[in-house]
């Protein structure tokens, strides 16, 4: 009996141990499942917090006036849910919006600009030429390499072979595949103050072809007197508008009476009739033009009623140019000057003069007939084409010094002066304010004004959703193009179509609802 009782006790104890192990295993499994479910729920919450941050950034971009974009705008600061008084229990979002138009566009920059850009970053002109040629070969459509570049033959010979893309860049990270690029150069060195290339270059940038009021610019080459009067009449006098038409129609370059010299020098004496006199005080002969003495530029005076608005044009958007093309409005894309006079230049449909009609390349040409201050005031209202977007231009207000210097390889001090000007005077309200930079020569101005802007239509948004003390983090990075919601898109979005929607505020918040086209999308 004693043996049987001992065996029963051992059996019962064994069963208890087994049941305990089973219960512990079950508890561990349940706890693991609960943790997995909780972690999944936190990740879902973090993802939706990131999406909330993205849409909050879109809202800020929509409320921003389209006339001027700069580093002092609300969207340019770090956006936080708590600062916006949006409480999400133990979660929050952080958003950073970057102006892509303030960067150098890898798909539109020419060889000279690329060489200047990489020379100042590396200090090695030979490496800069190799990188420039390799970038051009990567984005072009042929298999013929540039002198220091590379095509598929080179890349196929590498230990891990691949082919040259022969198409435009889709992401700056493609530079890591280009001959001559190193990880140290691409990612930068914070200790030496070298920024990563992702802060300096982009693959898609554009600016709306509108004035400071958000209205479509008037095409100075085709506009009638009535159109010029409607667009410029609050700044220019009728005689100054007539002078523009006479200049465009080849009728002469005499500035209207009562104007001021279009240079950075003080006024010269004038005769009673308004004619400018040389320093001697004697009238000039026919066909002669005075040369004002040197002096300091006067500060910009903006006209009344020229404050930016949120209005935007309603033209159809067009896709960016093919790889390798110069930005819209650059000399390489401009048509040749017109050779025949056209009617409609002066009131009554009369030709503006006896000469051949001029093709105005930029508002800078009007410096021959308009005072400098007034030209600056109307600069943003004048265009030389009717395209809704300008591709590849660089925003003077958001471009870092390294990008600006690449546009002025022969005069890097002028790039520093531009940065100092915007720090001292605030954001550039007009490209014409470059006339206030004394270190810029006329030839540099002529090359620069068609490559820069004060606006942007493309932004990179990085939205981060955080749960707890950074226990769970979700990142959404997107490049979006801002355009009017009423304008039909020329191309359908290809990435994350669900977010290519109109973000509409009430009529009190925006003059027009706008639409955001997704150009790039990444989540992790």
UniProtKB/TrEMBL annotation:
The keyword Cell membrane applies. Residues 345-355 have a biased composition (Gly residues). Residues 107-185 form the T2SS protein K first SAM-like domain. One of its GO terms (biological process) is protein secretion. Keywords: Cell inner membrane, Cell membrane, Membrane, Protein transport, Transmembrane, Transmembrane helix, Transport. The keyword Transport applies. Residues 277-289 have a biased composition (Low complexity). Residues 249-358 are annotated as: Disordered. InterPro entries: GspK, GspK_central_sf, RuvA_2-like, T2SSK_SAM-like_1st. Coiled coil: none annotated. GO terms for cellular component: plasma membrane. It is found in: Cell inner membrane. Residues 261-274 have a biased composition (Polar residues). Pfam families: HHH_3, T2SSK_1st. Belongs to the GSP K family. PANTHER family: TYPE II SECRETION SYSTEM PROTEIN K. This is ComE operon protein 1. It comes from Candidatus Fervidibacter japonicus. The gene is comEA_1.
